[in-house]
Amino acid sequence: MKLYSYFRSSAAYRVRIALNLKGIAADYVPVHLVKPEPLPAYRDAVNPQGLVPAIEAGEDGLIAQSLAIIEYLEEKQPEPPLLPSGLAERAYVRSAALLVACDIHPLANLRVLRYLKRELGQEQATIDAWYRHWVEDGLARLEAFVAGSGRSGAFLHGDAPTMADCCLVPQLFNARRLACDLSGFPTLVEIDARCARLEAFQRAHPDVQPDAE
Amino acid sequence: MKLYSYFRSSAAYRVRIALNLKGIAADYVPVHLVKPEPLPAYRDAVNPQGLVPAIEAGEDGLIAQSLAIIEYLEEKQPEPPLLPSGLAERAYVRSAALLVACDIHPLANLRVLRYLKRELGQEQATIDAWYRHWVEDGLARLEAFVAGSGRSGAFLHGDAPTMADCCLVPQLFNARRLACDLSGFPTLVEIDARCARLEAFQRAHPDVQPDAE
């Protein structure tokens, strides 16, 4: 298996965690998202969606979109599970993962911040405020959702990491990089700290990837 | 079952299609997204994530996030399927759905356009250009992904509608409302037209919802 990744991509970080939790080895293929050349070449030759992550999964071919990849890994190799077994519990985990993937991350990623700067000519302070607005707003929703669910434990669901934790940890890593105020999210911060003690999360961290700068 | 919806919400529209395709009846509960009062009350009393859609699914409780709802419906009532059976095919369908749900829609929804207007003081023409930029960019990726996949047929996957078509049709409805140029996406436009002939899609259309204006 190959993993197309960029060390700082939040979505690629999710998949790195999932691969490590499953114990699946993948060859790391870096795609530099900041330099101008690599992305168009990758889009033409590898992934028409043109974003990372993607995996090359043998006879199953190329799979793009972090949550589609994680669902694929779950179906391909069910153990250890990244989704619980009950229908309501599975919906809860997917809902938490999608809150990060649909309501927070898309508004705070590199291509959007660049558009604000280049096309709309916004100052860095305005861009930073944009970032913090959407990340803090989304994390407040996630904190309320998790804390009110009665389903969290050591991790977002119960006492083993799931697809939802694969999304939470990269989002909090990014939030800290841009100095978001996390004081209102004690449940999320505590779960994130517990994840950080696991080797699967440590080996997925941006700082230890082959293309880390 | 109850469906919390807003007639014009693209994400709620996805779930309305899925419910109709499955033949599952749901009581329609409108949540007005434009007036100032309903959303905070809904967030406090019903859904801590604070967005539509959500379903109230009997003993399985409240489920938020359109794609988590559709996955839940698929697991609860597998027929007719909204995901194909093969692992690679399932990944393809989820990947197309997530491209819409993560890479297009979040940048073009009401709360984001409002922030551009109110907090960043942007002119309507700039906001329209923002909308069209992200929607047309994302649809170009989706067109290339689908057309190059060898997996599309009458619908995005083969000859029966899936979760991916549930996402495509609302996105194209919205794109037309804001006068996006769809001429570069012949595969998507053709599939959308085919969906529009099915009663399940017709009954989910914004114009025929109880809260349509």
TrEMBL record, chains A, B:
Outline the extent of the GST C-terminal domain.
86-213
Every GST N-terminal domain range: 1-81
Q: Which GO terms describe its molecular function?
A: glutathione transferase activity; maleylacetoacetate isomerase activity
Query: What are the protein's UniProt keywords?
Result: Isomerase
Q: Does the keyword Isomerase apply?
A: yes
Q: What is this protein called?
A: Maleylacetoacetate isomerase
**GO biological process annotation, one example:** glutathione metabolic process
Question: What GO CC terms are in its UniProt record?
Answer: cytoplasm
Q: Which family does it belong to?
A: Belongs to the GST superfamily. Zeta family.
